[in-house]
């Protein structure tokens, strides 16, 4: 279904990004794996993606670094070709109550989770416009919709990503480029594994479907939004959260 398309997924070394990369590879897309520093994990994703008979490469790049993102996009264009699908998934947390949150706790999360997505969109959008086609998918969070105690920085970044999604969707719609956001609920990855058991149990009680999500729950929707079948969906924010945010 995605045969011959080139997909860039940030944060594809682990968790949700890895599942998205492998799902898109299983549908025939070539994969650019952007990651922060975990080369071993990135190479494992790459090798697994290649088993689907597609091209896959790893690119270590801090998404919050505007210049580094520009250089990485050039490398990807040289090695894989133009990018058809961009998935802004890289993200971090630094949870603290607002009264204890330092300025760097705040700006660190904003720089990766929000400015990082801007950097990628900024450096890929001219290619999408020239091709008069493209799919941009931003991974936001239920925290960006509902807010979350202890996550003022993270929720602000994720809410900002929703505004960015709708604005980019409006700007690029005339060129047949769609931009949508997926808002995961509680997904079992490294990001949530370290949370204290009592907090995890509290979440579980408030999930109507009665289970945590898996990375592949998110990957299924990402693959659909990346496909031609989703041609008439843009500016949407779709929750994949077992009902947590309703
Ligand atoms: P994860 O398992 O912690 O993986 C994070 C990924 O992001 C890794 O691949 C990491 O690369 C990469 N990354 C981190 N900082 C980066 C940077 N500065 N530059 C480039 N790459 C960077 O996270 P996850 O749970 O899969 O989350 C993926 C996305 O979903 C995030 O945006 C997160 O906010 C969102 N989300 C997650 C949940 C959840 O419950 N898990 C819920 C809602 C939303 P390295 O491996 O190299 O460190």
Task: Give an overview in words.
This protein is α/β, with parallel strands linked by helices. The chain has a single domain (6-240), classed as NAD(P)-binding Rossmann-like Domain (Rossmann fold, 3-Layer(aba) Sandwich), CATH 3.40.50.720. 48% of the residues lie in helices and 15% in strands. It is built from nine helices and seven strands. It has helices at 15-26, 39-50, 66-79, 103-131, 142-146, 152-172, 190-193, 197-205, 215-226, and strands spanning 6-10, 30-35, 56-60, 85-88, 134-139, 177-184, 237-240. A seven-stranded parallel sheet has the order 3-2-1-4-5-6-7, sandwiched between helices. Helix 2 links the parallel strand 2 (30-35) and strand 3 (56-60). Helix 1 packs across helix 9 and helix 4 (103-131) runs parallel beside helix 6. It is globular. It starts with 5 loop residues before the first strand and ends in a 6-residue tail after the last strand. Bound molecules: NADP nicotinamide-adenine-dinucleotide phosphate.
Q: In short, what is this structure?
A:
With 246 residues, the chain is α/β, with parallel strands linked by helices. 48% of the residues lie in helices and 15% in strands. It has a single domain, classed as NAD(P)-binding Rossmann-like Domain (Rossmann fold).
CATH architecture: 3-Layer(aba) Sandwich
Mean pLDDT: 97
How many domain modules?
1
CATH topology: Rossmann fold
Integer-rounded radius of gyration? 17 Å
Which descriptor suits the 3D outline? globular
Helical percentage: 40-55%
SS-based structural class? alpha/beta
Please list the strands of the largest sheet in the order they lie side by side.
Answer: 3-2-1-4-5-6-7
Beta strands, count: 7
H/E order of the elements?
A: EHEHEHEHEHHEHHHE
The CATH class name reads Alpha Beta
Structure annotation, total helices: 9
